[in-house]
Amino acid sequence: MDENSLNIITDCIFKREEILDRIRWMVEDCDNLGGVQVLFDSEGFFGGTASEIIRDFKDDISHNIPILTYCLSSSPVRLIY
Asked: Is 33 in contact with 65 (CB distance < 8 Å)?
């Protein structure tokens, strides 16, 4: 793993805490949170980062808030119905 990759990973770890703080602020502002919808890129490093943020959200903020995730992909394969 080269130095640039390590810098990106380290930056994402610090950004994760910032993202969770912003989510906490938005949740505290809600009167009645009925659920959360998350759109994330499933390819590469960002899919894992999104998974970690969702897990931390579930552990830290609430165990009973439903989370609906949409996995986005740039796959060239298209389904025609």
From this structure: yes
Q: Is 47 exposed, middle or buried (0-12, 13-18, 19+ CB in 10 A)?
A: middle
16-58 pLDDT per residue, tens: 788 888 888 888 888 888 888 888 877 766 777 788 888 888 8
Rounded distance between C-alpha atoms, residue 42 and residue 47, angstroms = 4
Instruction: Report the Cα 64 to chain-centroid distance in Å.
Output: 18
Its pTM stands at: 0.64
Instruction: Report the alpha-carbon distance of residue 12 to residue 63 in Å, rounded.
Output: 24
